[in-house]
Amino acid sequence: MRTSLSPTSSYPLLTPSSWLMSTSGSRIFLLGVVIFLSTSAISVYGHGFLQSPLSRARAVGRAEWEAAGGNGLGLRPFRTYPDTGFLVNDRADVCGDPHQDVGDLNMRSTATAIQATYTAGQTITVSYRMTVNHGGWLSVKICPTTRVNPSQACFDGYTLTNANTGFARWWIQTGAYGTQTTYTTNWRLPVGVSCDSGCVLQITYRTANSCVDPCNASECGTEYAAGRVPVSGVTGPGVIMQRCGTYGNPSTPPRTEVFRDCADIRIVASGGSNSGTTTRSSPPPPPTQQSSSGGGTQTPTAFCSGKANGFYGDKSTNCAKYFWCYGSGAAYMSCAAGTTMDSRGTKNYCDYPKNNVC
Ligand SMILES: *[C@@H]1O[C@H](CO)[C@@H](O)[C@H](O)[C@H]1NC(C)=O
Ligand SMILES: [Cu+2]
What are the start and end residues of every segment in region (Disordered) (predicted)? Predict the structure, then answer.
């Protein structure tokens, strides 16, 4: 059902000057619209997702919900988050936002089946599938106290250390802009922290396509330390980027895109019978609201025959569901509750019904 349709970058490189020009809300909105219109269709998804342990969005069959967000260039609406101060600067909700950041929906409150069981203090492997590589860094945190509505403050209290580098931020040194890459990284779980009934792992992908976070060479290597991005194609060769503004302070541009994603895990106390093992629980029940073969009145393949690539609201569901026609195939998908897909194939995101033709 999941296709290899690769998102082209939704957000082109922002030069520092364009950021400075766009610091007022209305300008940012305008910029977002212009970028959207000048980008090819079917382009706007998050820039990556947790492959192992599997992301919440994928575990419930809502790949279209996977971490989106970024620096506020998403189409609409321009949200004000309750966690003002931390999130305003980077516009990614705690567990990622749904496709196109429509409404106040997120994966924060959507617990899924446990995807992996670890032992306290263990080194764990986290694989992140990067769909749009902008350089920058990954960090991994856990919230051991709850699976429903974990707060960013909870995650911030349990930042994992990368087992290979010893730092909390793991900097992306390889790859090229626009190529999909899976980064497999190793992290140390804190000793003495367990969650027998499950808890949440959060990954943050903070990009370096608009600015580079300050860092020194021992942590991030000589390129980033000098303000350059070693991932090829994000900037021109040798370009020195501006340094990002203070993290968490929305009044200090430049800012850059940030994506988050969560997975449900379990950590047993060390010395338990599961010591040292990593197991995957049985997969969650298949989603009832979407399937690759279903379709309101016809199969996706039949519906998409002869149609241009795009998303088409299924009129028999009042466009709550939609057909996804892509180069080599077709799928049937659901919009997040309260949103619909335009039926004309002209939009690539679920929107509020009043904004759509169905
Ligand atoms: C480099 O940065 C890391 C992470 O912030 C810090 O712990 C370390 O002390 C710094 N090293 C030097 C030589 O400044
Ligand atoms: Cu981007």
Answer: 269-298
- What tens digit of pLDDT does each residue of 32-46 get? 322 332 232 233 456
Per-residue pLDDT at 330 exceeds 70: yes
Domain with residue 158: its CATH number is: 2.70.50.50
CA of 139 to the centre of ligand 1 (A): 16
Q: What pLDDT is recorded for position 240?
A: 94
How many domains does the chain divide into?
A: 2
Does residue 263 sit within a domain? yes
Dihedral over alpha carbons 314, 9, 174, 126 (to 10 degrees): -30
Indicate if 109 and 150 belong to the same structural domain.
yes
Question: Are residues 250 and 331 part of one domain?
Answer: no
User: Does residue 199 sit in the same domain as residue 109?
Assistant: yes
pTM of the model: 0.64
Strand order from edge to edge, sheet including 116-119: 116-119, 258-268, 195-206, 137-143, 170-171
- Look up the domain containing 348 and give its range: 300-355
If one compares 164 and 260, the residue with the highest pLDDT of the two is 164
Choosing from 161, 218, 247 the residue with most ligand 1 atoms within 8 A of its CB, the one to mutate for a pocket test is 218
Atom index in ligand 1 nearest the CA of residue 167 equals 4
Q: Which of 249, 268, 287 is the last residue of a domain?
A: 268
Q: Which stretches does DSSP call E strand in the chain?
A: 48-52, 116-119, 123-130, 137-143, 161-162, 170-171, 181-188, 195-206, 258-268, 310-313, 321-326, 329-334
CB contact set of 272 (below 8 Å; sequence gap of 6+): 119
At 232-249, the pLDDT tens digits run: 999 988 999 988 866 555
Per the domain annotation, does 283 fall within a domain?
no
Q: Rounded mean pLDDT of 126-152?
A: 93
Do 250 and 312 belong to one domain? no
| 335 falls within a domain | yes
Q: Which ligand is nearest to the CA of 167?
A: 1
pLDDT at 19: 27
**182 in any annotated domain:** yes
